Amino acid sequence: MAHPHLLVETDGPVRTITLNNPERLNAQTPSLWAALAEEAEELPADIRVVVLKGAGDSFSAGIDTALFTPQGLPGEQSVAQLAMAGADAIEEGIANFQRGFTGWSAVSAVVVAQVRGYAIGAGLQLALAADLRVVAEDAQLAMRETSHGIVPDLGGTKPLVDAVGYARALEICATGRFVSGPEAGAMGLANVVVPSVGLEEATRRLVDSLLSAPDAALRALKPLLHGAAGASLEEQAARERAAQAPLLLGQVAAARASSVG
């Protein structure tokens, strides 16, 4: 799905997806979420790393607030109209919105969010949809939904709790306060924190490090670790064994083929 505010570029095994509406601080809409969902669901098998970023000075200031007005935005589903359609319609609509966020955990590629400027509400939830986050020191991250009488609902609550713990996640969401880049790094919300001028270079170094790992092992590692928090020790040990067997068999087969050659 081509979208006027989504730029998709591919460089070998790396795909960069840029929210491209800097005049609106990359504000998000349902059509953008549908395009993101399609990008995740149709990601080519040979892509090893995906970088999510925002054009201009901010990652994303969140949902376009015009969607909460009765008139909404041309060509977009109005949240105000959705709210008047009843509970079932609300849940169905949100389920469709969430696909643009939750789909990234299912791809075999490692997803890296490059965050500068504002990452607010839906912006922070999209950053949380990534596996790793490279954050500028001057970034400002916030979950503002509860301050507006609602809750985060784009798949961001679980990765937030996984990253910083229940108490810190509750405090961040309930107060709606801004978290700086350095604080995000200290609490585990960011993997790498660098000055804004070094953000592109830091992202490139991380991507290069990911690409240096053998492809099959990296693709097996992501789902292995992704489900670890909810598994018992015995369950996770079994998952390790199941992931390791084909890798070792592949190495044996490659060694035999090399010796024959």
From TrEMBL:
This is Enoyl-CoA hydratase. Pfam families: ECH_1 (PF00378). The keyword Lipid metabolism applies. GO terms for molecular function: lyase activity. The keyword Membrane does not apply. GO terms for biological process: fatty acid beta-oxidation. Keywords: Lipid metabolism, Lyase. PANTHER family: (7AS)-7A-METHYL-1,5-DIOXO-2,3,5,6,7,7A-HEXAHYDRO-1H-INDENE-CARBOXYL-COA HYDROLASE, ENOYL-COA HYDRATASE-RELATED. Belongs to the enoyl-CoA hydratase/isomerase family.
